[in-house]
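Can anyone check this?
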Amino acid sequence: MKKIICLLSFIILSNNLKAQDAILINNSPDSKPEKRIVQIKLISTQMYFDEGIFIYRKEKSSDDWQKVSNTPIKKEEIKKEDISNNMGEVYELYNALMSENPKEENDKNFKKFMMIIEALSNNEFAKLLGIYFEDINVSENNSYVYKITKLESGKEIEIGVSEQITIGDYKKNKQPTTLICEREQSTVLINWEKGDKFFAWNIYKRDSLNTNFIKINDAPVLIFDKQLQNDQKNWNYQDTNISENNTYYYKLAGLDMFGNESDYSQEVIIRILDQTAPESALNLKNEININEVKLSWDYPNIPSDFKGFNIYRSEDLEGQRLKINTEILTSSQKSYIDKVDKIGKVYYYFVESVDINGNGSFSELSVASVTDVLPPSKPKIDKAEGDIGIVRLTFGKQTEEDFWGYKIFRALEPDEEFALLNSEPYDGTEYVDTLQITSQVPYYYKIKAFDSSYNESDYSDIVEVKLKDVTSPFKPFFKSINVSGNEITIEWLPNLDPDLMGYNLLRAEETDTSKWEQLNTKIIDNEIVSYSDKSLIPGIKYLYALVAIDSSNNVSEKSNFYPGLIFDDSFPRQVTDGSAEYQKENNVVKINWTYQGDKNFLGFVIFRREEKNNEYIAVSNLIQENTFNDKMINEGDSYNYIIKTYSKNGNNERSNDYKVDIR
């Protein structure tokens, strides 16, 4: 059923039809100026109509439908004695299909699919089904539209209306494009793009001894995938009737839905060369020198079409053979040296004899057991770190596939004898040497790599490492603190630790010594003994502390604390854009203002005085909002309002007066 739907969908889309029944029209190839003929074909999933169909025609400018077929067009009942000589096969196929009465759904769909294909490719078959008609009563250059109705219980039911056609000469479809032919062994694979004009194709072929092309497909070739795919499973046609040492020419013709062929495509030439392989090489032998395998063989009889030799190697007798020569060896080259990457393995070798046509044959195998005598490469200790009582060595793993492990050595002097630390090779990438001492004397290490064949590398370079220093520097001590304007300068006594790296200066507010911040962004050099703090907020009391840091990043205790303070005598900004408005409906005075705040801002307090009183009284608490509603008012009174802005140092700034009459 899927193929039927695909085929009908193609017919409908190709003719811009919207219904599930396709009415096809075409100027006939038999049409002549003196006698014009229009072909009409109905393709439907119903296939044929027992009571028949009527065909109507109207001119483009007319609304008057004229009946073309005066009697219903029906499928014909054919008897064997009616079979003519030239149409015998069509009648036989028609009789065979019409006499079948399949019961299975798949069989029914296959029968319907076969009938649609035959009706599209053969107009005589469509005529037998009662779905084909030729209209000979048409005029040159006139434009017509056709309508088809079907009879059901004696009543006419419209099936559909065709597209418009202008009467004239038959126009043959242009040739198909993108014909591709490729040879694969004893088959020629043929492919082409589907396109939109054809429902099926015919393939023609000739060889170099003949000039006439012969159609090689018994039935029209159908494809349902519009995309061209060069994949053997998706080739549209395969020609197996070919022979060696011959040249074939292929061309393609598309079939429209009246069985008319298009122009031929361009020819594609395929040359079929011989496929007979040359004789195999004889007496393949090998000689091994460390990681080199030298192969030699005999080839006494060189054929005229001989090209050369290829060398193949495999690590598995039943596994894939890998071609190892980059260029083919000539007939005079009967030896080859293979340098293998992996030693201590068994390799299987084959020699392929190849002719100029790509045919090849393999020799018997030769087995080469390559013994490992190569030592691992010189190892390297990437990192050596001392910690509390331990030394941690890090090294990357060797690249050799047969790497076994490292042996690790230690000494107190680089020119002394080194002691072996591990009895068995260690195959990790990090090794920890535990020491029962905490002295700061250096230790020296080197390693050696071993492979599975007990080959050993050279020693690595010697590395020096000390144990981690866990002794903190002495606690530093402040010398003095000086205030100058908005800046505080702190001085301290220099630490005498030999491995002193520098200092960090810390600051906290006196009210919260749990939150210390580091003032310096990078460590203060050990030669510097003062620091100027410029990031201060006036009025806040600070405490300062200093810590010392050594080269092992050990940190001392905090120094003695020193207090620091700069005074703030600034006043806050005055509010702007202030207003006071009596809202009678809510019986409230609404006061609004704008404030460009500062870092010492604390809040606002709203004051009010009555007109008969000179004293301002606060009517709000300390607020941060820029609006206030005064609800404690009396009708008939008048009020003056001011807004005072307070800063953290206690200073304040009053606004202008805003007068409101409660009326």
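Reply from J.R.: I decoded it. The chain has a mean pLDDT of 87.
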